[in-house]
Specification:
Elements (H helix, E strand, L loop, with lengths): L7 E5 L4 H12 L3 E6 L2 H12 L5 E5 L5 H14 L5 E4 L15 H29 L2 E6 L12 H21 L4 E8 L5 H11 L4 H6 L1 H10 L8 H11 L11 E4 L7
Parallel strand pairs: 1-2, 1-4, 2-3, 4-5, 5-6, 6-7
Length: 264
């Protein structure tokens, strides 16, 4: 018996990285999973793994920046599942790694379009359904960068701060409808997004440098109290708790999964 038996979760960007870790942990706890992703190849590969856990898994193509795409994907998902009980807004992008006055407006706008507006667009498409079925759970994946503005990541940090704020707004609005809304703030994880950053930090984006993990491991050693890296599965385990009835009186919160990098 899992804590999510009988539930169905929709995870945006669930095909790889943190999104995949979340999808796996939800499936382990008994949830059927809808992987909503713009990259169908990654999504289908993850779906194969989840089906091996005995879960019903549906893949839908979704561009979270496009209302029509989101509406179509949600409609398709509901056609395959009787209901959706859980929404995890995970899909996101990093943006440029440059000083604030060098950030291109195109990059700034894209960060906000995906990391913040996307949360609102997808949530709005699901909220009506939650009200119809008498409740639901939403978890937005923010970042510790949303709590502490980061040099050379102004666009990303600001968009993730917005993700925390919109989490609180939605929690206030949806509480009377039995909908819990929380945010999870990951620290640094060894994912495709970090490997892109490592080359930026070291000024050497070659595969040899990125694969050495030297900067990543140094950051973990210097800044994480637990002195160990975080994984997508770590994030997924917290999400599984937050979307279960074990957290029924927790809403409007933003919780770090960062090994003690920041303590609030």
């Amino acid at each position: 018996m899992g804590i999510l038996d009988g539930k169905t979760a929709l995870v945006t960007g669930g095909g790889r990285g943190i999104g995949k870790g979340i999808a796996v942990e939800l499936a382990k706890e008994g949830a059927d999973v809808i992987i909503a992703d713009i990259d169908l190849d990654n999504a289908e590969n993850t779906a194969i793994e989840l089906r091996e856990l005995g879960r019903k898994v549906t893949v839908v193509e979704m561009d979270i920046t496009q209302e029509a795409s989101v509406a179509s994907a949600v409609s398709s998902a509901l056609g395959e599942h009787n209901q959706i009980n859980i929404l995890v807004n995970n899909a996101g992008i990093m943006g440029d790694h440059v000083l604030g006055d060098e950030v291109q407006l195109k990059s700034w706008d894209k960060c906000f379009e995906v990391n913040l507006r996307g949360i609102w667009v997808v949530s709005r498409a699901i909220v009506g359904h939650f009200k119809e079925i008498g409740g639901g759970k939403i978890v937005n994946i923010a970042s510790v960068a949303g709590r502490h503005g980061s040099g050379k990541h102004a666009d990303y940090s600001a968009s993730k701060a917005g993700a925390i704020s919109v989490t609180q707004s939605l929690a206030n609005e949806l509480g009377p409808f039995n909908v819990n809304v929380n945010a999870v703030c990951p620290g640094v994880l060894w994912t495709a997004m970090w490997r892109q950053l490592e080359g930026m930090y070291s000024r050497d984006a070659s595969e040899e440098n990125v694969n050495q993990r030297k900067i990543f491991e140094g950051l973990i050693k210097d800044r994480c109290a637990l002195n160990r890296e975080q994984t997508p599965e770590d994030v997924g385990m917290l999400v599984a708790f937050l979307v279960s009835e074990r957290s029924r009186n927790i809403t409007g919160q933003a919780i770090n999964v960062d090994g003690g990098m920041f303590m609030n």
